[in-house]
Specification:
By secondary structure, this protein is an alpha/beta fold. The chain is built from 14 helices and 14 strands. It is globular.
Length: about 400
């Protein structure tokens, strides 16, 4: 019923958004005398903000058509290196450029599409052969594809690394830090030649017992059964995944919006003011952010619930109790994968120390293969996007990769 109610609301808002957009355009038309009145721009701006906020969102595009390599502009082509039911390995091939460290960027499966890391990819493209995990919206995966849980996630990462080949580096942004760590440990234990040379974890929940945030507290204050009853819904028809149990993206988005509701209201108020003042460029920046931020997708119920249980409630990885298909994931198996842990001083999703724990539990890894960086005055989003990522954090990642690239 929850998903059906949401779909009805979404359909109604889509129509209202279209009407509001038409109304805003009419009020801004130079041929309309009301456009020159005092109230005209105000009403038009209010309709524009509403139209943008209520518009339906599909999967965004990366739109990275080119990059600059050693002062030369080269074309970038998106290619699918490996396709699987719940995600694909996307390769950003730089035309005419060979070599460079192979980098697998692992995007979160947490309600947003991989395009949320557009800025991450864009910054690393000039010097690296970049791949990314492009996860699918669970409601679009046919039910006959079967389930997808945390074990499957790890399997996908191993398959992606094997498809890229030996010598790759792995960069985990937030949520995938735990499965990336597990994949690296399992591949190391098996002496898999495709194991990553480096694993960089940024704002990841390796041990959420350290400096717990509001997100961590929510997961521990409520029992596992509460999440089963209250946040899991069934995909309705006519989606291909009809009948599949999922954690809907719209619930994930609502939770994140509620955490910083004041900031989001302020952003929309500022957008409104820019529009009234005729500052289209200022308003477009906010629109671009929320067009991406509101583009959400569902994740399978089994993956979400297993993550809540294993990562946030029982803390299995730092306890040395995490298993993959019945096999224990041993952090001590990491002996030659260089680990870099990056945290944001103002991160309200993963508290300080949670990612650094990855270095502490790798007891067999030499100290020279461990590095920690605390990004001052940086919040969660700023770790992997924006000017602070581009100018202060990315150079550290690049140096770490270069130092261990064979």
């Amino acid at each position: 019923m929850l998903y059906d109610a949401y779909e009805m609301q979404r359909s109604l808002l889509a129509g209202a958004s279209t009407l509001a957009n038409i109304g805003a355009g009419w009020l801004q038309n130079p041929a309309n005398p009301f456009a020159y009145s005092q109230m005209g721009p105000i009403v038009a701006s209010a309709l524009d903000v509403f139209a943008h906020a209520s518009a339906p969102r599909g999967k965004p595009e990366f739109e990275l058509a080119e990059t600059v390599v050693k002062g030369r502009t080269v074309a970038v082509h998106e290619e699918i290196a490996l396709r699987k039911p719940f995600g694909q390995l996307k390769h950003f091939r730089r035309e005419g450029v060979k070599g460079g460290p192979k980098l697998l960027i692992v995007a979160p499966m947490s309600g947003h599409y991989a395009t949320l890391l557009r800025g991450t990819v864009e910054r690393m493209l000039p010097g690296h052969d970049v791949f990314i995990t492009d996860w699918r919206d669970a409601k679009l995966v046919p039910s006959d594809a079967g389930p997808f849980d945390l074990d499957d996630y790890v399997d996908y990462l191993i398959a992606f690394l094997e498809a890229i080949g030996p010598g790759a580096h792995m960069l985990a942004v937030c949520q995938p830090s735990v499965p990336c760590y597990a994949a690296a440990a399992l591949m190391s234990a098996d002496h898999n030649p495709a194991r990553p040379r480096t694993l960089t974890m940024m704002g990841g929940p390796i041990d959420t017992r350290r400096a717990p945030t509001a997100v961590n507290t929510l997961a521990t204050q409520r029992p596992y059964a509460w999440f089963q009853r209250n946040v899991i819904a069934t995909v309705p028809y006519p989606y291909p995944g009809a009948g599949r149990a999922v954690y809907p993206g719209f619930l994930q988005l609502a939770g994140f919006m509620a955490m910083n509701l004041g900031d989001h209201l302020t952003s929309h108020w500022e957008m409104f003011r820019h529009l009234v003042d005729g500052d289209g460029e200022g308003a477009d920046a906010t629109k671009a952010f929320y067009a991406e931020y509101r583009a959400v997708c569902d994740m399978t119920a089994e993956f979400y619930l297993q993550t809540v249980d294993a990562v946030f409630q029982r803390h299995l990885l730092p306890k040395g109790e995490l298993t993959h298909r019945g096999r224990r994931v041993d952090p001590a198996a990491l002996t030659d994968v260089a680990l870099l842990a990056i945290e944001g001083e103002r991160d309200d999703i993963s508290g300080i120390g949670q990612t650094r724990a990855a270095l502490d539990i790798a007891t067999a890894l030499p100290a020279k293969l461990k590095k920690y960086h605390l990004a001052r005055t940086v919040g969660h989003y700023g770790i992997f996007n924006g000017s602070k990522w581009r100018e202060r954090i990315a150079p550290i990642v690049e140096q770490w990769i270069a130092a261990h690239d064979g």
